[in-house]
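Long-time lurker. I teach an intro course on protein structure, and each term I like to show students one example going from raw sequence to a predicted 3D structure in token notation. This year I'd like something fresh instead of my usual example. Would anyone be willing to generate the tokens for the chain below so I can use it in lecture? Attribution to the forum is fine with me.
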Amino acid sequence: MNSTSAPIQKIDIGMFLDSSPLLGMQKLVIFMAAMAIILDGFDSQLIGFAIPQLMEEWGVSRAAFSSVLAAGLIGMAIGMACGGCLADRIGRSRVLATSCLLFGTATILIGFASNVEGVTILRFIAGLGIGAALPCAATLTAEYTPARQRTMAITLTIVCFPLGGMIAGLFAAWVLSRHGWQWLFWVGGSMPILLSLLLFVFLPESPRYLARHQRRWPELIHILKRMGHTISESSEFADSAERPSPKRLGFKALFQAAFARDTIAICLAFFSVVLSLYSAFNWLPAVLSAEGLSMALASQALAAHNLGGVLGSLFCAYAITRFGSRVPLLICGSLAALSAFAMLGLDISHNAGLVIAGFGVHGFFVNAVQTSLYGLCAHVYPTEVRATGMATALAFGRIGGILSAFIGAAVITFGGLSGFLVMLGAGMAAAVIALLLVRSHLPGKKSSARLATANAH
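-- Reply from a regular --
Happy to contribute to a lecture. Here you go:
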């Protein structure tokens, strides 16, 4: 394959990448995608930390911010759907860089807003960029990584979302008491703008995407040479190391016979998980402060939730690599529901530390499921519709997030912390049911080895 003596070199790009080691340039791409997701998570959660101070400064109720939270999540859902479709048509790297520029600019402008209406509009615009970035970053990571390391690489990328939220929590606890809520958004918006400039200049396109577009083969040859491979300028490319391509492209392809059941089940799983996850992101500091905790302790609870999410995501990725995705996802989803129900009845005034730890455990299992669903999407869909499939599932998830903005406000108002915990647990129980319906789960090491042996013979 590395010989240049033949006039035409035919390369199966999927098998070529899967049989090659993970090289420095591939690691750089994964790192840049991960940085985009860190800032995605950082910016998406800033509003949750700012709401209590904005309520006091502007003299508005908690319910008034439901529209702000919903606008951001609606923007994310639209951004995911449109960003994924665009990424399958014009490339992953261009859409990712533009997305970072968009949500960074809108986030900075939120710092200059003077009313709820202005924040609502800007959160919608920021949501468009935040939403579009997620499927592009995950797809780039999946398509640059050899199959044996793909699940862990995707998880290491997506786990940066709760990591960004954890950093945002620590930053918010420090900056709110010293400089005010505006600095949350000025700093949070500046960083993705700087990153977008780096992405425009240095982030290469996906080799598997380029292999599908003959006019861009010279660009693919250049990328493979940068990775250290010896490639003929007259090389031809194919990609057979994945599921058969759908007869139609775009959204309709996701509901063809080969994908319909998995598409519906994964969309339902994302919907339920994100309903629970964004209820915590958006309302956890507010519900705990309403129960009498200081804002510093309430912020620590969300930081613990995100820290647990980082650890849980890595744990689940390791378990999926060994055992496949079905059993680890079902176990983590069940324990996420049980951990929420287990906190019912705790007296927060006497058990603040236990409640914070409990949300750390809950975040461990919720994020373990949520980040692993990205790897499941990458496994289910082929290159032509991978970004579209992932974006569609994520968009359905954001519908759950949108509902959390309104349901969360109502539940906190009428049910307090107990009602909030029931909502978190019920969402994860529904996710477990959806995961039971998924047919094409990721195989573990033993199953992959048997499949490779069968293919060799």
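Some talking points for your students: The chain has one domain: 10-456. The two ends are 21 Å apart (CA to CA).
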